[in-house]
Amino acid sequence: MSAPEPAAIRTRGLRRVYGDTVAVHGLDLTVAEGEKFGFLGPNGAGKSTTISMLSTLLRPSAGRAEVAGADVAHRPDEVRRRIGVVFQEPTADRELTGWQNLYFHARLHGMPQREVRSQARSLLDMMGLADRSEAPVGTYSGGMQRRLEVARALMHRPRVLFLDEPTTGLDPQSRAQVWQKLHELGRQDAVTVFLTTHYLEEAENCDRIAVMDHGRLVAQGTPQALKSAIGADVVHLRTGDDENTVRSIRERFGLDAETTPDGVRVRTADGARWVPRLCAHLATGVTSVAVTRPSLDDVFLHHTGRSLRNP
Amino acid sequence: MLKPTAERPGRLTARPPGRRASELAALRALVRRETTRLIASPAQTGLTLLNPLLYFVVLGTGLSAMVGSASGTGDYMMYVYPGILMMAVQMPALNAGMSIVRDRETGLLRAVLVAPVRRDTFLVGKCLGSTATATAQSGLLLAFAGLAGLPYDPLLLLALLGELALVAFTLTAFVTLAAVRITRIETFQSALGVTMLPLFFLSGAMFSVEGLPVWLAALTLVNPLTYAVDALRQTVAGAAPGGVLPTGPDWGGWEPPLLVELLVMCVLGLAALALAARRFSRAA
């Protein structure tokens, strides 16, 4: 009983209940192969519970989920062979070296000895850890540990990589580094990446995102589509004569413009493309321009009534 | 093909052919991970051995002088040596249980549980690996056999090492069983602390349990450590130049011979491990 078109992850009515609390309400989700899919939501939205169910560590209370072609409840071992997981909390063995961590992981996944070494070497190389592979993980920085965990999760060549809050607790530089590696990964292999995050910037890096709140999916789509769905860009202009500017923008371009204490505000789709035309044709002299696009936070605010930045 | 068995209820669907081989490979990896960890932290090993060594050298010599002058029979250093060896097994066995509880609490365990390996394989691997490290650590104390007045006879040392391995297995299995049932590290620590010390004292490790009141004596008979200490002591006494064998556990007038004692430990250990594995497989 396989799906009509290939999907890396497909859930139908996936639900998890803890006592009286419903952590995940009937989730319907389809993630295509090779996609980088982000699961955005505040802490406690049910993101980790979902990842636990998809990675077979938690039995769904109801509904079903297929990951990499196998049902998580009925064929968990097949799912486990085809997925890699990076957990939210650090899970590398601090007493062992980076190489030893990769080695034992690979052997637990039944990888033949002869393949382990070459695969470990190329992953350590890719993650920029080659020169520290013989040092105990306890001596690694937070970012290095994270990159090692990503390498470890990739050792057995999974088809789907789960990352639960991959950069929480890392400094901005380490975060950027982890992301750089994730991007390289996307270019090289057709591995599907499913990650949860409560960082808006990280969600921007994904091909498609789903916004989750209180255990429910409130929106999904590409970051672009989600943002354009809730509204247009805003172009801020500073000019010598705001009143005349507004009038000529309305008359000449038919755009929605208004004066504000900070200058002129123009609402339009594709704001950046209007900037050269506005500057060229306005006689009143533009002294400064800024284009603001709706952020994912606006998306989140729109769908949940709350902001992710200032909950 | 695999037939349905009692240990594998409902686990028959779509098992690929190399299943047993991959579980065995995983088991080997789990055992090797423990031994690798031991080699990676020699300081920890040294510290773990410090305690039994202190008991042996300080308490042993001190009491030896006192006991010797009071009763004039036997050598206390030799008497207490098996108890010291067992003490050296106890500590790493406890640490094994502690690491299971801690790994579960911190989420580290999930990284292992997400591998395509049966949960009972994980537990057995962890237990066997810890048995190996506990044996190796306590085996280092065999270097001090001379202090107990024992000859460095390879056969004797080998026999003691073999017995230590069995003791290590039984103890680790019991500690693992406790670790599977107790989820909080604080509870685990106090529960094991409360049980281990009396069991140790009631095993005849430091003093003979002959003079104990009946109810306490009954307790010594169900104490696995009693058989561990007595087995080691029988071996020690057999090899000592003029060794006097102290009385061991008494089953209604019959003192079980060495092999029966080893068997008792083996059975107890296997039973504890089986229970632990069953319980661990069911926890979701």
Biggest interface: chains and residue counts? A-B, 31 and 28 residues
Give the % helix of chain B: over 70%
The largest sheet of chain A, given as strand count, sense and whether it forms a barrel, is: 6 strands, mixed
Q: What is the oligomer described by this structure?
A: heterodimer
Percentage beta strand of chain B: under 5%
Domain count of chain A, please report it.
Answer: 2
Can you describe what's shown?
The complex is a heterodimer of chains A (311) and B (284). Chain A has 2 domains: 7-227, P-loop containing nucleotide triphosphate hydrolases (Rossmann fold); 232-293, Alpha-Beta Plaits. Chain A has 11 helices and 14 strands. Chain A has helices at 47-54, 76-82, 98-108, 113-126, 142-154, 172-188, 200-204, 223-230, 242-253, 271-281, 296-304, and strands spanning 7-18, 21-32, 36-40, 62-67, 70-71, 83-86, 160-164, 192-197, 208-213, 216-221, 233-239, 256-260, 263-268, 286-292. With 284 residues, chain B is mostly helical. Chain B has one domain. Helix content of chain B is 72%, strand content 0%. In chain B, α5 packs antiparallel against α10 (258-282).
Concise structural overview:
The complex is a heterodimer of chains A (311) and B (284). With 311 residues, chain A is α/β, with parallel strands linked by helices.
Keywords, separated by commas or semicolons:
heterodimer, A: 311 residues, alpha/beta, Rossmann fold, Alpha-Beta Plaits, 2 domains, four-stranded antiparallel beta sheet, 29% strand, elongated, B: 284 residues, 10 helices, disordered N terminus
